[in-house]
């Protein structure tokens, strides 16, 4: 833009520019130490029609040839340095940056190399950029990507002998499965897309129900068996209830009664009513549905006890309880956490906290084929039939972490959500490492369910976001006033040194107090327990140091000159 920048004293501002790939950060390489590039204060500062963020974005574009947006202007609370958090959506060639003494470095490695006080803003910048990008991705996912998947389901609908539904691999030539049809119904419901054939799919579930009230599995068996299966029954009940079927409906009542009968004496569930042992996944799944329809029943309390006793020493859960648990897996840990929370456990429950810690330790990173590996469970149903149940793990871990209170901006969560969104096939489906090159119904449902949970988590914060917008307006006024005062002080040569300094002391202290007060009110939940008096007193104290500190040198110099006259 060819703008001039004001010389002289002013706040030190450092650029925290995150690359479009969200993995790198811009570093000033012109000095012997690693540091963030300095940003000149825009001069003149006040330009009609531009916000503070837009004004700084213009300066950053002129100075560094970047193109993007300023997401925040924050301080480290220590030495008065300000940090401009910048999302560099478009970046210049490396050769152009080299000429300016700049370069991109790994975002995760840089904080340890920076001077004290800069590491925290850098980490905050990475989280903020990821959360900002997720918002953009979710808008695209919910408006376009869900349409791709539901259109594919319409095309792959399978019909046979009066039945209408879907099968495991979405083959239109195959016969409808029980579990896959329930997941197909839920996919339309979770995506919020109406389906004109929904009543036929629900009727198919009714026709395929067993006389004992439960539902079998037709396509996920090795061998043949018509026995009612816990996993299938829970999914069919979920689909019927979510589609609006009355809880007094015969199919719903019969399914709930079967589910309660199938609970084993130790409080858990196996895959069948006569299973020899309980397993984590069907137990957690049954708990979640029963809590939904019966609240805190005796069956739920017994199952919650079983889940607590099944937790391993490392905080996670495996397929089974006890010494033969098989070791903790992300899939079983995620479902156990969802079951415990549904049964009434608090987020600060030690079992929940330990489970979250286990999920963190099992995280492979988003550069891995799957952040948490998919899991296959094999369980005997009868003497000649075996259930092969496959799970797309990452979506369920995302759901569990959000339910446990882990923030959407947490790098592990935000990175996994972005990984999930990017994993959708161009035809609309999601796949898994267990079924490469195929279009499994269960993976697509799991992905849509997780995206819906992420979206609801974001929507639940709308009041907080509105409040943040209002505070952002207050901060805009405070920052604008702050920089305008500095600009005016430097421009007005008629003021004598001592008079100018006294006015600046007052203005800078008052305005820093305003900014500090707003920031303290923004620091929920950290400031939630502070009274209004303490918040105001703390802000006043914060206002003294940065407000008067930068002018101590001038103050002393004025006094020396006064004595010399």
Helix content: 40-55%
Order of helices and strands: EEHEEHEHEEHHEHHHHHHEEHHHHHHH
What overall geometry do the principal axes of the alpha carbons give?
Answer: elongated
Contiguous uncertain segments of 5+ residues: 1-9, 462-471, 523-527, 539-557
> How large a portion of the residues is in β-strands, by DSSP E?
5-15%
- End-to-end separation: 46 Å
User: Radius of gyration over alpha carbons?
Assistant: 30 Å
The largest sheet has its strands arranged as: 1-4-3
Coarse structural class:
mainly alpha
Number of strands: 10
Quickly list its features.
565 residues; three-stranded mixed sheet; 10 strands; 10% strand
Task: Tell me what the structure shows.
By secondary structure, the chain is mostly helical. Helix content is 50%, strand content 10%. The chain contains 18 helices and 10 strands. The chain has helices at 52-64, 94-99, 119-155, 178-191, 198-207, 230-242, 250-261, 280-294, 298-309, 330-342, 350-361, 393-403, 411-422, 441-459, 462-491, 497-522, 532-548, 552-564, and strands at 13-19, 24-28, 67-75, 82-90, 102-106, 158-160, 163-165, 221-223, 375-382, 385-391. Strands 1-4-3 form a 3-stranded mixed β-sheet, sandwiched between helices. Helix 6 runs antiparallel to helix 7 (250-261), helix 10 (330-342) packs antiparallel against helix 11 and helix 12 runs parallel beside helix 14 (441-459). The longest helix has 37 residues, at 119-155. It is elongated. Residues 1-9, 462-471, 523-527 and 539-557 have low confidence and may be disordered.
